Amino acid sequence: MYSEQTIFIISHIIVSEALEANIEAVDTHMNGMKKIIDAVGGMDMLEHGTLAMLYRSKNRFTESSSLGTRFFTASWSRDIQPTFKSIISSYQQLISYYESFANVDVEPMSVENDCLLFLGYRLISLPYEVSLTPFEETLRLSIMTYNSVRIWALYGIPCLERLVDMLRISLFTSLSALQSTAPDLLFWIFFVGSLASKSMKHHSWFVAHLTDVADQLSLQKWDRAVGLLEKFFFVCRPSDEPAKDLWQSTFRPDLVIVQENRK
User: Record's PANTHER family (predicted)?
Assistant: First the structure.
């Protein structure tokens, strides 16, 4: 007897296979999925959370197929240990799933929240499992920061300020190497740091470095910046005021002043 849990698990597998561009496997599992859905009584018998996951596995993935790919295809990705890379891969799938809720009026199921909490624990405990390089430690803190602001929306929470400061301190050690070997990754890191540090003590520090890396990569225009950010962990949502406000205040301060004068 099939259950919604079976459908949900297969949907996750399909997203994973799509991320790996394994079209044959995706088609095989899609065909099997149709039979299972018929067996449980059709789409009308499924809960909204399951339907959202099906929507993600069949349609929305095509809009963000590059999500997180730089963590696996860039030359610097070879310096990420397998244990850490497996955690990043799991995050890649979950973030893809969570972002799908931006366009549908449903909430994640408890099992997804449990998975996200478990991955958060894995990131926290990772330094106790393996010896991380300064580069990996900065990456670990960056993913934790991204998770805090983009998934959990913990803007302004005191614990977030502590996390952002840990990220800033880690960059004192890794910045030089990242500037020469991974400026694309550094751009994402400073973008996440700038987003998370709004109204915090060191916000200007993150923004200044974000501007420098953006100039280095010729990414002063929002559309071009999004194209790179989405190859890490970022999806530009239809209503994404914090991210767009950050970009305008950093690269279009004249526009921000005009908007404030209109209020």
Answer: TRANSCRIPTION FACTOR (ACR-2), PUTATIVE-RELATED-RELATED (PTHR37540), TRANSCRIPTION FACTOR DOMAIN-CONTAINING PROTEIN (PTHR37540:SF5)
pLDDT tens by residue, 2-41: 566 676 677 767 766 665 556 677 778 778 877 877 777 7
Q: How far is CA 58 from the centre of its chain?
A: 20
Query: What is d(CA 82, CA 130) in angstroms, rounded to the nearest whole number?
Result: 10
Determine the Cα–Cα distance for residues 154 and 64; give it in Å rounded to an integer. Answer: 24
Let me know whether 155 and 86 are in one domain.
yes
DSSP states of 159-177: HHHHHHHHHHHHHHHHHHH
Same domain, 25 and 127: no
Name the packing angle between helices 134-146 and 183-196 (round to 10°): 40
- Tens of pLDDT, residue by residue over 129-165, are 999 999 999 999 999 999 888 887 777 778 889 999 9
Per the structure, the complete domain to which residue 54 belongs is given by: 1-62
Measured between alpha carbons, how far is 134 from 161 in angstroms, rounded to an integer?
20
- Give the total number of structural domains in the chain: 2
Residue 202 within any structural domain of the chain: yes
Residue finishing a domain among 41, 62, 83:
62
Q: How far, in Å, CA of 131 to CA of 137, rounded?
A: 9
Q: Are 105 and 134 in contact (CB under 8 A)?
A: no
**What CA–CA distance (Å, rounded) separates 252 from 258?**
10
Q: Give a yes or no: residue 194 inside a domain.
A: yes
Q: How far apart are CA 10 and CA 104, in angstroms?
A: 20
- CA distances 110 to 60, 114, 123, 153, 222, Å, are 21, 6, 20, 17, 35
Query: Are 80 and 150 in the same domain?
Result: yes
- CB count within 10 Å of CB 73 equals 10
